[in-house]
Amino acid sequence: MIVEVDVRDLMSLLKGNVSLEELIDGLNMFGTPVDEVEENTIRVEVAPNRLDMLSTEGIARSLNGFFGFDTGLPVMSITSSTFEVEVKGSSVRPFVGFSTVHGVKFTEPSIKSIMQMQEKLHISAGRNRRKYSIGLYDLDRIKPPIRYVDMPLDEIHFVPLDEEEEMSGREILEKTEKGKRYAHLLGDRAPVLIDARNRIMSMAPVINADWCKVTEKTENVFIDSTGTSPGTDALVSLIATSLAERGGKIGVVIPGPTYLPKRVDVSFDEVRRIIGMDLKDSEIRQSLEKMRYAVENGAVVVPAYRLDVSSVRDVAEDAAIGYGYQRISQEIPSSNLFGVPLLQAERENMYRRLLVGYGFTEVKTFVLTSSDLLELAGSPHIRVQNPKTQEATTLRQSLLPGLLDILERNKDVEYPQRIFEVGPVFLPEQKIAIAGMIAHRDSSFAEIKGVVDSFLSINGIKLDWTSGSHPFFIEGRTAVAKGGVYGEVRLDLASRVGMPLAAFELILERDL
User: Fold this and answer.
1) What values do phi and psi take at 298, rounded to 5?
2) How confident is the model at residue 161 (pLDDT cuts 50, 70, 90)?
3) Domains plus CATH for the chain?
4) Mean pLDDT of the region 109-121
5) In whole angstroms, what is the distance from residue 104 CA to residue 138 CA?
6) CA distance 419 to 425
């Protein structure tokens, strides 16, 4: 992800002096390369695992260690908060986390930085707010205790952020930009935060109220995260620990993160083995301290904001970064052997060349697809437990729906069209399949039979074909065998392309 950083703001957070060139070199060596430099702004590419570096504050904290300005476990002021939140429960977004941060020194660049982090977290970890959403509020304008409850959209009334007129919850979803964008995440009810004066602070996961927004005059901040899955505490801690870099004092609210560091048992011998270098214990310790760890009694103490660290391999990677990849000497491999293709890969390539000779064009579709598309082939569903998008929820059990989808998306291309694919399917064990599809006005059972018979004959493969049925093909114009099917595609499916379709699919067993 690209993070825009105000150079002057970043320099003000560093605890030592560096030039712009040294700053850029440090970011590049740290593994967060500078994508672009424009006047006083640099665009930094941050890896998806380093969510803590999605803000200027997080980048400065990491660089302070990397440059040796402030090493070891970051020292933060954390105390119990008297702020109260009554969680009445929500069927829409049942998981919540809260925190406060006091004494923050806001400026225009710092507000832009923390709001950028908020939106980047919404997009990445929050899955466009479907899984998690985050809100920040001016704590001094709020009267506790706060209630978190579900309300009908028509009973919700407040002035949304950056608007001037009061709206109902339904009007917010219909009229505001954010409302239109995230309306699909709500039904007829929405979770809201309400302060002791019965003022609505936000309608999650869409928008906050304007009256309690964070400005340059804000000194104390209230943070909330709501979601459909556990993990809201983690996002709250990322925001709060970033604000702590501005001099803020973190207040622990229940429910919410505790900010306790975690311990990972680490053997320096294992670190040496993973890195592949005979580093001294002192060099490993120093490298880890530069990455903002503490080393105590055979364990590494990991700061709470490092959500990505869970094993010795994560620690070893950071030890290598802290030591400096540029200091690792290059070596020519001692072996002079060259790789050779696997027998199965050579066979698959032979099949590809043969189908290209028949006039087919090879295509590639995604292994993860939608369950709706797979239903076209009557395939059983192997669903992904935590899919990223609605189009990638299921492991494919057939190549045929993907070929149909490609032809449907390319109806304006000149006919005839002949496409094929070789790739993995899951039945549920993984197999390699080959499938082809023909689209033109005269495509027929006889044409696809000729392709299949010739393909099998040339490769010395014998299958016992019989007349049968298959959900993808027309009854009575379908041939089936163990590990194979071909025929004319159902008329309702062919109508999606606007042409008669004929297709085949074969499972390429290893002994073929």
Assistant:
1) 75, 15
2) very high
3) 2-66 (3.30.56.10), 78-252 (3.50.40.10), 262-325 (3.30.56.10), 343-507 (3.30.930.10)
4) 96
5) 11
6) 18
C-alpha distances out from residue 351 to 127, 358, 419, 421, Å? 40, 11, 13, 10
Nearest-5° Cα angle at 67, 65 to 68: 60
How much is the pLDDT for 330?
79
pLDDT in tens, 359-402: 999 999 988 877 766 666 565 667 777 666 666 778 888 899 99
Report in angstroms the alpha-carbon separations of 70 from 11, 26, 64, 169, 322.
14, 15, 5, 47, 13
Q: Any idea which residue has 């060099």 for tokens?
A: 283
Per-residue pLDDT at 489 exceeds 70: yes
Tokens coding 56: 């200027």
Taking the CA atoms of residue 279, residue 281, residue 284 and residue 288 in that order, the dihedral angle to the nearest 10 degrees is 180
Place of tokens 């929050």: 126
Distance of CA 231 to the CA centre of its chain: 14
Helix (H, G, I), strand (E, B) or coil at 358: coil
Look at the block and give the residue holding tokens 């998306």: 409
Q: Coil, helix or strand for 42?
A: strand
Tell me what the mean pLDDT of segment 26-55 comes to: 93
**In 67-193, where does DSSP find H-type helix?**
108-123, 169-175, 177-182
C-alpha to C-alpha distance for 54 and 65, rounded to whole angstroms: 17
Query: Is-above-0.90 flag for pTM?
Result: no
Give one word for 29, left, alpha or beta, with left for phi > 0 and alpha for psi -120 to 50: alpha
The larger pLDDT score, comparing residue 95 to residue 512, is at: 95
Q: Is the peptide bond before 424 cis (omega within 30 degrees of 0)?
A: no
User: How much is the mean pLDDT over the chain?
Assistant: 92
Beta-sheet strands, E only, within 364-454: 368-369, 382-383, 394-395, 417-426, 430-439
Instruction: Say which DSSP state 500 is in.
Output: -
Q: How far apart are CA 193 and CA 267, in angstroms?
A: 47
pLDDT score, position 510: 46
Q: Which two tokens stand for residue 124?
A: 């990445």
* Residue 59 · residue 11 · CB < 8 Å: no
- H/E stretch holding 374 reads helix 371-374
Question: pLDDT tens digit string along 428-476?
Answer: 888 999 999 999 999 999 999 999 999 999 998 899 999 999 999 999 9
> Cα separation of 169 and 206, whole Å?
10
Amino acid identity at 498: G
